[in-house]
Amino acid sequence: MQVRLAFSVAIKAQGDVLILDEVLAVGDEAFQRKCNDYFMERKESGKTTILVTHDMGAVKKYCNRAVLIENGLVKAYGNPFDVANQYSYDNTEKEYDDNVQEEREVKEDDKISDISINLLSEKRLTPKDEISFEVNYNMLQDMDTYVALSFTDIDRNIWIYNDNSKEHMTTGAGKKMLNIVVTFQM
Questions:
Q1: Angle at the Cα of 153 from the Cα atoms of 152 and 155, rounded to 5 degrees
Q2: Is 106 contained in some domain?
Q3: What is the DSSP string of 4-56?
Q4: Which residues constitute the domain of residue 43?
Q5: Can you count the helices (H) and strands (E) in the chain?
Q6: For 136-148, what is each residue's pLDDT tens digit?
Q7: 47, 86, 163, 181 — which has fewest CB within 10 A?
């Protein structure tokens, strides 16, 4: 409620520069819509708004320039899409490092073990990139398998690429390695 009140007071002040800290993280749908309309109005009128947020979707939508600050130092500055992607990449890497899975014991009814996916191309993707990776796994039973591929843009909540054809089929038991190259438009 305090953030809503502060936002209402700030927009009534009609200043040339407006600083908002995590204002989009609160409120109901009507308040979010009001914020959106006001941001778009300010953006179109050329007034300066400094938005402090962890919401990279908001950075991409509302900002002309962005700054990524880490431990008090500027880590990235410039195009909002590039800065937002850097932030997301940094947090994904940290999350991956924090969640490295321990090897688990193989059970008698398991069909596959030792699954790993290694990205062979650059980790930061841009539109129309070609992405290459290898998939390694060990088939414990004699059976047909295939790799289904899906890529999503989390910020925009859309599918970028989806392939569940059986192009990457393998047959039989034993160690398998697939090298897969995919080209898609983000």
A1: 140
A2: no
A3: HHHHHHHHHHT-SEEEEESGGGSS-HHHHHHHHHHHHHHHHHT-EEEEE-S-H
A4: 2-98
A5: 4, 11
A6: 777 777 777 666 6
A7: 181
